[in-house]
Amino acid sequence: MRKNIMLGCISILLYSPLTMAMQPLDDEILSNTTGQDGINIGLGVSKIELKQASIIDNDGISTGSDYKGRASLVLAGQTNTPVSINLVGANANPSISTIIDTDGGGGKPFANIGISIAQNITGIKISPFSIYVASATSTSDAVNNKSIYATTGTLNADVKKILNIGSASNNFEIAFHNTNKPGLNVQLGNVPQSHMLAFSGAIQSICGTGSGCPISIVSDTTSASFNFQLQANNATTGFRLDQFHAGIEKGGVVFGNYGLNATDKITSDKVDVALNNVMLGDTGVSDPNIFNGIKNGSMGNIGAVGASITNLKVRISGL
Description:
The protein has helices at about 1-15, 25-30, and strands at about 40-45, 45-50, 50-60, 70-75, 85-90, 95-105, 110-115, 125, 130-135, 160-165, 170-175, 185-190, 195-200, 200-205, 215-220, 220-230, 240, 245-250, 250-255, 270-280, 290, 295, 300-305, 315.
C-alpha cells in the first residue's frame, strides 16, 4: 500500500506544473514573465593592472628572408612594472554597469551587451606604457607564457621598443563629459544597430592639462617626440562619440563615423588638437641639434583649432 501511495505521488510530481521549470525558456517567454529580462552586472572596480598584453602573429618576423616566424606586438610598462588603468572618481558603488540580453529579432536573433560608466567617474588615467615588438623567444604560445623582460628586469635581446606614451610625471588621461559619460553597445549575431560596436556619450579632453602627454616614436637610438593634446571645441557638448562605431568586415577590422550608404555625410564635433614641443633627434645624445648627421632639433608646436572629420573609415587588416 505504501508503495502504491509513493508511486502515485511521484506521478503527480512528474505531470505537475513544476516540471515546466526544467524546460528551456526562449527570450520571448522570458520577456512575458514577471521579473528582470536579461542580466545586469555591476562592477565596483577602481583600478585594473596588467603586466603585458600581446597581439600575436604566427607568421611574423623571422631570422630568414621569408618573414614567417612567430612574433607579437606587446603593450607593457616602460620599465618592468605593471600598467595601471585608474577610473578617476570611483567609489564603493558600481563604476561600470553591463546589461546583457538576447532577442529573437523576428527570426534574426542577436545578443546585446550594453556597457555604461557611472556618473561619478570623471575619467580614465593610464600609467606610462610602451609598445614593443618581440620575436618567438619572447612571444607566448598555447603552452608557454613568456615575458619580454629577462629575470634581471632588462628587455630581452629580441625585443624592440617602438612607442612610448606618458611619463612618470605625466600619465595618459581621458576626461569624460560631466553629465554624458561614454558608453559602448555590443551586438553579436544579427545587428539591428548595423554595427558590432556602437559608441555613445562624450569626452572633454585627452591629456587636456598642461602641454599634453609626452609621446615618442623610437627606433634604436633615434626618436621623434611631442606632447599630444586634444580638447573639445565646444565645452558644453564635449566631443560626442554617438556617431562612431566599429566592426568586422571582409577586409578586416573597421572603425570610424562613416555611413552605410555612399550618400551619407556624417561629421564629428569639432576638436582642438595640438602637438606641442615637437622634437627630432638622437635619444641620449647631449647635442640635440644633430640627427643622423643632419642638424635638427625642435620643430616647435603644431596644431589645429576647430577641426572635424567627415565619414572617417579606418581599416586594419593583415593581422
